[in-house]
Amino acid sequence: MRKRFYLLSLGCPKNTVDTEAMNGLLEEAGWRQVEQPDRADVLIVNTCGFIDAAREESYAALNELAQNKRPGQRLLAAGCLSQRYGEELRHVVPGVDGMLGTREWANVVSCAERLLGLQPGADVRPSDEVSVVTPMRRQAQGPSAYLKIADGCSAPCAFCAIPLIKGPQRSKPRAAILEEARQLVAQGVQEIILIAQDTTAYARDLGEKDAMPDVIESILKTVPQLPWLRLMYTYPQHVTPWLIETMAAHPQVCHYLDLPLQHAHPDTLRRMNRSPDVEGVRQLIDNLRQAMPDIALRTAFIVGYPGETEEEFTALLDLMTEMRFDKVGIFTYSPEEGTAAANLPHPVPREIAEDRYARAMELQRGISLVRNQLQVGRTLDVLVEGAEQGISVGRCYRDAPEIDGYVLMSGEWPVGQMIRARIEHAMEYDLEGLVLVGHHHAKD
Ligand code: SF4
After folding, report:
1. Is residue 50 part of a domain?
2. Fewer Cβ in 10 A, N or C end of the chain?
């Protein structure tokens, strides 16, 4: 039977969730996944069009598959790039046979079958249909799983194309979130990671403010045996005292927060159309650290934003020095088509933006190392993700998958299990731990 698919996922962890959902739907419909593109009947690439580099990567991957297509093989481009650059994509990669927009992943089966002539129907084009209520049949892969609680974004950040690509925020109903959590835990998942463009905005589209604490408590009531619940992508001004209290009160909630600040100077923030209340951010970080002294804080900044003066950039470095974030992502600004920021005057020359990037990275490298060194001597739970050639890699609560570092340990420990390790050595990104035997047994 001609029902084999090859599925390549590019871009951010949020895209990974859609990829896994497509995977689940195809397998349920009797399709079989293959590892080699040449053995597939349909080649699917879940593309990312968020930043230039991701766009290039997506085009390159599609081109390579298109050039090596066997007769009868079909190529399907799914995700952000097809949603936003549909026509351009057809032009740049003429070998693409079908496209599926970001909100259409739930149609992947009918689309793939139509391409093979197994179902009647015309070519599929991106549309704006939303199906956040479609149950996500996610395959648990490894011990951690992303659970998307909302899609789209209604925030007005001037530099960001996400609201244009994905539309306004649509929250998933609570009952669906709880059902997914139940299924994931039944599949053996040890860590659920809640994601959305802005998790703290959850349910605002349904007329509720500050709904996250209640979502967290409902999840923990539904799956009390879940070891770790992690919250990603929080908007600083939406992190409320109730949320902080809830995070501190439940041992299963990882003391970790990803709090993208984007900048630290009120004028830059104003031009970004974000809250200029830097004092409020200081207070928030203080409150978080008071409630959870062991909290690991990650943030992200954009350097080289239009009009960014040396003085504004220095304010950013100063805040980094003052706040000593555990992990910081730095991005050089790149204008995104259709966004308000793309039309702002006074672009920062490339060399200056790159110089600022290097200075910010250099500063943070030292801070991250010191923050990691403070972990030496602590005994932490580590979730094992892989083991090979006498070494295991895992993560502690301070590290989110795919973004942060690892805990490296000698010995091959069972993948998917929580083990206790004493941190012996710290590097900039990773830690080294000694597994405390007596708690668990090594694999034979
Ligand atoms: S930066 Fe984040 S919060 Fe702002 S518009 Fe983009 S996705 Fe939404």
Report:
1. yes
2. C
Give per-residue pLDDT as tens, 219-262.
999 999 999 999 999 999 999 999 999 999 999 999 999 999 99
Length of the chain equals 444
Ligand 1 pocket residue status of 246, Cβ below 6 Å: no
Closest by Cα among 417, 397, 409 to 433: 409
Q: What is the CATH number of the domain that holds 94?
A: 3.40.50.12160
Report whether residue 163 contacts ligand 1, using a CB cutoff of 6 Å. yes
Q: Which of 24-28, 230-234, 305-309 is least confident?
A: 24-28
CA of 156 to the centre of ligand 1 (A): 7
User: 155 CB under 6 A from ligand 1?
Assistant: yes
Alpha carbon of 162 to ligand 1 centroid (Å): 6
pTM, two decimals, is 0.72
Say if residue 393 is in the same domain as residue 337. Answer: no
Query: Does residue 160 line the site of ligand 1, with CB under 6 A?
Result: yes
Give residue 283 CA to ligand 1 midpoint distance, Å: 22
**Domain termination site, one of 354, 373, 392:** 373
C-beta of 150 in contact with ligand 1 (< 6 A): no
204 and 328 co-located in one domain: yes
Pocket probe for ligand 1: among 15, 50, 157, 333, the residue whose CB has the most ligand atoms within 8 Å is 157
Specify the pLDDT at position 429: 84
Average pLDDT in the 149-175 region?
94
96 and 156 housed in the same domain = no
Q: Residue 251: give its domain's CATH number.
A: 3.80.30.20
**Are 391 and 295 contained in the same domain?**
no
**Residues of the domain holding 161:** 144-373
For residues 73 and 96, state if they share a domain.
yes
Express each pLDDT in 186-200 by its tens digit: 999 999 999 999 999
How high is the pLDDT of residue 192? Answer: 97
Same domain, 368 and 383: no
